[in-house]
Amino acid sequence: HLEKFSPTCFLLSPSSFSLSLSPPFPSLSPRPSPQRTLFLSTGAEAVENAIKIARAHTGRSGTIAFKGGFHGRTMMGMALTGKVVPYKTGFGPFPGEVYHLPFPTDYLGVSEDDALAALDLCFSADIEPTRVAAIIIEPVQGEGGFYPASASFMQRLRQVCDQHGILLICDEIQTGFCRTGKTFATEYSGVEPDIMTLAKSLAGGFPLSAVVGKSEVMNAAKPGGLGGTYAGSPIACAAALAVLEVIEEERLNQKALAQGEQIKARLHQLATRFDCIGNIRGPGAMVAMELVKEGDAARPDPDLTKRLVAEAGKRGLVLLACGVRGNVIRFLAPLTAPAAIVDEGLDLLEQALSASLA
Fold first, then answer.
1. N or C: less crowded end of the chain, CB within 10 Å?
2. What number of CA atoms fall less than 13 Å from residue 151's CA on the CB side?
3. Phi and psi torsions of 103, nearest 5°
4. If you write DSSP's letter for every residue of 246-275 in order, what string do you get?
């Protein structure tokens, strides 16, 4: 492709790769409504444009997000993000009319009823539902700690949105493309979002993101209101087409489920030996373990988490921490990784955890 011409603005001269990628998107997961796709470069861009589209469609300005959620480092992305350190510290003020609800997390003592009661309180104390354009949610929180939203909660949230004419935006930037054992995590709930944001695994590391939504919603923006010079890079779109081929040829949803069982089985073994492992969770290959003191969920251990990340690094194992309490280790091994390599990483994890507790 580069031999033909350097990529220019997609809006002015769309490439064959971009046009070839567009048709498969609506059919990747079952959605009854006609869909349209907007390609961009980054996840934050996808989120920003999803909010723009929601406002254009509804004529409303308010947005509701969740504590612990992560939606990017741009100004609206930070406003939507429900975690201060390190994402929001020193960068305010942020765009207004963004409200945060507690994310339903049984392990932390927050039930679905608690979250929905907080939504009712938001409607009565902060903003009337007729001024809310969208509710944005990660089907499984990423930076917030890999807490999954249950199918019943997603369905109840869909009902509230339908009742008040609010759009439901599912942020699948981290959960999408087979990570959870479904092409998109929202499929576990049977809920159809009005808008979905995608990035990360979409193009296998190349800068590409997308907003996929119901056609009637996506059409609300006026011509020229959406886009960007580097949006829908033809090179990234070519990479995304290759990713879709790998997903099908290597059956990555099935691999994600198998990998997740492999990781969780080993973590449960470790939990019988180390009482610092308080909880193991996550759908498919989006797995996390919560580190606490003496198995007590109310006593998070962020210091142990930091030591474990450092000890693992000394052994050549890259670990990432997350969670609003800074005490969660997340596992995101490549879905194409052989089981033997995953086992090798888990061996190093065990060694690092033993050293961290010594």
1. C
2. 5
3. -85, 130
4. HHHHTTHHHHHHHHHHHHHHHHHHHHHH-T
On whether the CB atoms of residues 173 and 197 are closer than 8 A, the answer is yes
Tell me which residue of 33, 23, 44 sits closest to 228, measured CA to CA.
44
Report the C-alpha gap between 307 and 354 in whole angstroms: 11
Could you tell me the two tokens for 114? 């608690």
- Write out pLDDT tens, residues 121-142: 999 999 999 999 999 999 999 9
CA gap 120, 118 in Å, rounded: 5
Scanning 220-325, the segments in alpha helix (DSSP H) are 234-249, 252-273, 302-314
- For residues 94 and 155, what is the distance between their CA atoms, to the nearest angstrom? 30
pLDDT, position 10: 65
What is the C-alpha to C-alpha distance for residues 259 and 285, in angstroms, rounded to an integer? 6
Q: Please write the tens of the pLDDT for every residue from 275-295.
A: 999 999 999 999 999 999 999
pLDDT for res 309: 98
pLDDT at position 306: 97
Decide the pairing of beta strands 62-66 and 132-137. Answer: parallel
